Amino acid sequence: MYQYDKYDQSIVDARVEEFRDQVKRRLAGEITEDQFKPLRLMNGLYLQLHAYMLRVAVPYGTLSGPQMHMLAHIARKYDRGYGHFTTRQNIQYNWIKLDECPDILAELATVEMHAIQTSGNCIRNISSDQYAGAAADEVADPRPWAELLRQWSTFHPEFTYLPRKFKIAVIAADEDRAAMRLHDIGIQLVKKDGVLGGRIFVGGGMGRTPMIAPEIKNFVTADDLLSYVEACLRVYNRYGRRDNIYKARIKILIHEIGADEYRRQVEEEFVAVKALGIDPPQAEFDRITAFFAPPAFDAGASDAIDRTDPDFAVWLDQNVKPHKQPGYAIVNISLKKTGDIPGDASADQIDVMADLATKYSFDELRVTHAQNIVLPHVAVRDLPEVWRTLDAAGLAAANLDLITDIIACPGLDYCSLANARSIPVAQKIASRFADQGRQRDLGELKLKISGCINACGHHHAGHIGILGVDKKGTENYQLLLGGSGAEDASLGKITGPGFDEDGIVDAVEKVTNVYLGVRADGERFLDTYRRVGMEPFKEALYG
Amino acid sequence: MGDLLRYRDDAAHEEPAVTLDAFLGASNATAVRIEPGEDARALLPHLDRIALVEVAFPAYRDGRGYSTARVLREAGYTGELRAEGDVLVDQVPLMRRCGFDSFAPRAEIDSATLKASLERYEFVYQGAADGAVPVWKLRHG
Amino acid sequence: MKLLTGNDLPSGDVIWWTGSGWSRHVEDAADTGTDGEAILAVEQAARRVNGAYVIDAAATPDGPRPAHIKERIRALGPTVRMDLTLKPEVSPEVVL
């Protein structure tokens, strides 16, 4: 993975001191909260329901064992012994003190980590495929492109006060594991005549007005990448709406002027920008790419595995995915054990995962947008030991992509924007479907819960989505069906009137029963919904 | 009103800035003021007779002026480029990178804080309008 | 009744105006009547509170009860981690 040189380190260290100074000025009253707010947000520090919350960046979801240990250390020393992995592949801490925040950043900087641009109206942490570098179906590792974008976007002088936040994802496979087209810019790497380039999609997003990004450019090579995205951003910064915060995302601009007109303006801007020489040379791209070279795999490693332990076999079938290297596998660690809070991990669990990475996965981990953790490069022969260790730490839930592998935002238990709680709903649904045979029979079923219209829980992209709303001071939950954040991206549709907390759990069960009754062979819930439409589900819910 | 901060050697331009519409309406003005929603590209045919462009920042959150500055500098404008309005100390380094070389902040900016802020980052990741050398160039000579 | 609430600036803790100062317990909160905004302005300027605002509440035998569930959760802590709340012994249902 990428390692800082003196330049990267100098920039991150300077950032720590800058924020230390900003906090000092705030505590001394030299700046108002209104002036301080954008400064702290650009460093991932929110004032949430119960305390300050710090969001730490995990660039493109990749981190090392020592970095993961540092996250555990921060949880113990400065927080309350746990952290929350987010749908943006980051981690956030819920009980941070403002006056300790500079020290936290200083500790993070010792392991090449930071909280830069994890919030604010700027270019956020770049996200990517959690299987990058391990997936058999990728045309290249997308992370060198993501790292190039990370450096370009860090403290970009022109794009730090955008109309609204800006999220970029890079993938390199036809299977989209990063909800690429639901980003402000989604880049899919493809090969054309042996040359690697990116298909550029612009204007996707969730939130109040969900949109799937249209393709704006079908091929951009690495040596034009930064000029092209700079042009995309400049058009947005100049013409994105600033009169209404709810209409300020780039998706609204593109929706209003049309993809063709946006493309025309970007092309025009690109000609001007390209002449500036802001694209690094091939040597820089090669330098970055070298950090992502495959680890020293054992070429003779065997794929043979003993499946006699039935619990191990279930976990193997559900959570372990094929690796491009024979004799290796990708291990998904579910943070969704029944009763758990989706995405939460204790400091001890974080340490366990860090140790496993060091010992069995070439010191590498990934955070997924589904709020799980991945050990990307595990030798098949080590899988039993990895599983035993995970199981002992309560981390061996065998439910990847099943109905209990729920994405849930923190909701009204933690978030000051939320209208309703998300986590208790996730817990109740997980309990209802806890039976392993039952959830496996339902097959792949992505259930996603947001506690408000901002959609941090990706409810629009859930096969089953749940949106918490405030109904005259009480929590109410709307049900959506038919969304997908994958390569077959679609937006869920609301079934009808909402439900209370227990009612929504029953409603989920009812729609799964409809599916079981009408599914054809091999159909996932989503496939059945797309074939039969909303009616049978509505009938079961409201008929 | 804070003091005018200038990073230029020439004398400050005294002529009051006129609106973009007034400027384009065949005036002989040499100073022009650009509001956030206005297109700085309209000035490009006239750059050689402009001595001061004042870019308005009615609220610090509105970042359109950063692009305005870069558009003008990229087109070769070398006159004074002034950020006026809700300009805060933590924004000045970014504005400098976008090509602003004078500042008329609504509220006084503490000079020691500003100095520290301008000197804080030794390196930058990306090229912009200020001539700072991006780290990729330092890495590869 | 009207309560004044906000967060402690350095720690971020949720705090409530008691009539003479700030407490971490909603039970200590005092009715500010129509004075809330005036107190807020003074206290915020002195940085004894951050992000302060006035909320509606009802007087009950157990003390003030905020009108909105969001404020009741703020007063208690996360209902899914009762061990981290100010009242680990109560049921999370108290916020409903």
TrEMBL record, chain A:
Which EC number applies?
1.8.7.1
Q: Please report the stretch or stretches of sequence annotated as the Nitrite/Sulfite reductase ferredoxin-like domain.
A: 52-109, 342-392
Entries under Gene3D superfamilies matching the protein:
Sulfite Reductase Hemoprotein, domain 1, Sulfite Reductase Hemoprotein,Domain 2
Please tell me whether the keyword Transcription regulation is annotated for this protein.
no
Question: EC class of this enzyme?
Answer: oxidoreductase
GO molecular function per UniProt:
sulfite reductase (ferredoxin) activity
List the keywords (alphabetical). Answer: 4Fe-4S, Heme, Iron, Iron-sulfur, Metal-binding, Oxidoreductase
The yes or no answer to whether the keyword Iron is present is yes
| Full protein name | Nitrite/sulfite reductase
Question: What's the superkingdom here?
Answer: Bacteria
Recorded hits in InterPro entries, A to Z, give:
NIR_SIR_4Fe-4S (IPR051329), NiRdtase/SiRdtase_haem-b_fer (IPR005117), Nit/Sulf_reduc_fer-like_dom_sf (IPR036136), NO2/SO3_Rdtase_4Fe4S_dom (IPR006067), NO2/SO3_Rdtase_4Fe4S_sf (IPR045854)
What is the protein's species of origin? Sphingomonas immobilis
Q: Which Pfam families match?
A: NIR_SIR, NIR_SIR_ferr
Give residue ranges for domain Nitrite/sulphite reductase 4Fe-4S: 119-270, 403-541
UniProtKB/TrEMBL annotation, chain B:
Record's superkingdom? Bacteria
Q: Which Pfam families match?
A: DUF934 (PF06073)
- Protein name per the record: DUF934 domain-containing protein
UniProtKB/TrEMBL annotation, chain C:
InterPro entries, per database record: DUF2849 (IPR021270)
Classification via Pfam families: DUF2849
Q: Which domain of life is it from?
A: Bacteria
The molecule here is called: DUF2849 domain-containing protein
Species of provenance:
Sphingomonas immobilis
